[in-house]
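Below is how a single chain appears once it has passed through the pipeline. First comes the sequence as given, then the structure the pipeline wrote out for it. We keep one example in the README because the format questions we get most often are answered faster by looking than by reading.
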Amino acid sequence: MRAARVTYRRSVVHQRNGETTMEKKAFMELLEATGVQVQRAVDRFMGNENLYLTFLAKLPKQLRFEEILQALDNEDEEVFYLRVHDLKGLAGNLELAPIYECAQAILVEFRTSRFHQKKKLTDLTREARRESEQIAALINGYFREEERK
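Resulting structure:
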């Protein structure tokens, strides 16, 4: 859907013992820069940022693109639909708009053509994967830093 270039601001990124660390505020701003609707997501979690972050930290392990692509290759309608629908729900609950929009586009195409437009479904799935990987990398980077603190 769109690729965002994400940069660190000096005021919220620190050097400590030769390692770069990022404050929570900076992380949230970087999420916003990728298209994540952070404030709506936090509101969905009753205003509890830490609860939102707990669920967000689980995202990278919940992305199941290998299963989606395998179901697409095998033309397994049930598994393909369920995995993409799960991705859409996960992205919607966490307000990950770039992933949600991709998953929605996949479902619309699938409902319209089933596997008759397999190349288009593959392209849309790869786009969803790219968006997901960008956000997952940001999440993994932040939480690796948090573990080192």
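The first helix runs from residue 24 to 33.

See the next section for the split statistics.
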